[in-house]
Design a protein that fits this description.
Blueprint: E1 16-20, H1 26-33, E2 37-42, H2 45-61, E3 69-74, E4 87-93, H3 102-112, E5 113-124, H4 126-135, H5 152-161, E6 165-172, H6 176-186, H7 194-209, H8 212-225, E7 228-234
Parallel strand pairs: 1-2, 1-4, 2-3, 4-5
Antiparallel strand pairs: 5-7, 6-7
Domain Methyltransferase type: 18-120
GO molecular function: methyltransferase activity
GO biological process, one term: methylation
């Protein structure tokens, strides 16, 4: 289940990609499949071991094209172990809401991103997240849990302050907000409640089968109750012609700005 929309966020074979706070590796795997040279970084050693295993399995199965590479490593988002301008692309998905020094993380991402490079940031959307917090303290008051709820303008403002040039936004996972509301209402650790189990089955069916009905439903729900807010940006001072007038990569990207969170 991808949060970043790669039709809005162009990725070319050979691009150097950092998936920062990669978690289980969903975006890193997609970038690898698209021929990128991927580094998946997370501070969770157990998850990094699993991501490394999946990278190896993908290589053995021939799921990545020739020239693509993938590395999984532990690291600190506030002290990235890379030289300046090491990457063409940085992705940070559902991570910044966990980190007290979010400005420090943005500064590190900008440091390792080359001029003209692209960055995708995703965070829980303000409205659906606010409902989760209202329904359950246990949803966010846990070690490593969510410490803030971003409004769209706040996140975009911090990205601009860090030296980035946002060029597009959208919302994702409209079908997932009701699931988390049910989880919060019945207990975040109570997966046996009938409404939670039933809705989970629906989500698994949607992810596995991608039926037209749920795809259309999510497309309609995303602008209204999409669980995630996604922002795309470039690092300025790119070579002449690398950016369009609106700051978007001059590669035919279809990035658009939808309703604010």
């Amino acid at each position: 289940m991808l949060t970043v929309d790669f039709s809005r966020f162009p990725l070319a074979p050979g691009d150097r990609v950092l998936d920062l706070g990669c978690g289980a590796g969903r975006h890193a795997f997609e970038c690898y499949r698209r021929g990128a040279r991927v580094v998946a970084l997370d501070r969770n050693a157990e998850e990094i071991r699993e991501v490394a295993k999946w990278f190896a399995a993908m290589k053995e199965a021939g799921e990545a094209p020739a020239g693509a590479t993938a590395t999984a490593m532990e690291g600190d988002a506030l002290a990235l172990p890379f030289p300046d301008e090491s990457f063409d692309v940085v992705i940070i998905s559902e991570v910044m809401e966990h980190i007290p020094d979010d400005k420090g993380v943005l500064a590190e991402m900008v440091r390792v991103l080359r001029p003209g490079g692209r960055i995708a940031v995703t965070v829980p959307r303000y409205g659906p997240e606010k409902i989760c917090w209202a329904l359950s303290d246990a949803y966010h008051e846990v070690e490593g849990g969510h410490i803030r709820i971003y409004k769209a303008d706040e996140l975009l403002g911090k990205m601009r302050e860090a030296g980035l040039r946002p060029y597009g936004t959208h919302h994702a996972h409209g079908l997932h907000s009701p699931y988390w509301w049910l989880k919060c209402a019945f207990g975040v650790d109570n997966d046996q409640a009938l409404p939670v189990r039933a809705y989970h089955k629906l989500l698994v069916w949607d992810i596995m089968k991608k039926p037209l009905a749920t795809r259309l439903a999510e497309q309609a729900l995303n602008p209204v109750i999409g669980k995630s807010f996604v922002a795309y940006a470039t690092k300025p001072h790119a070579p002449q012609g690398a950016l369009g007038e609106d700051g978007a990569p001059a590669t035919g990207s279809h990035a658009t700005t939808e309703g604010r969170a």
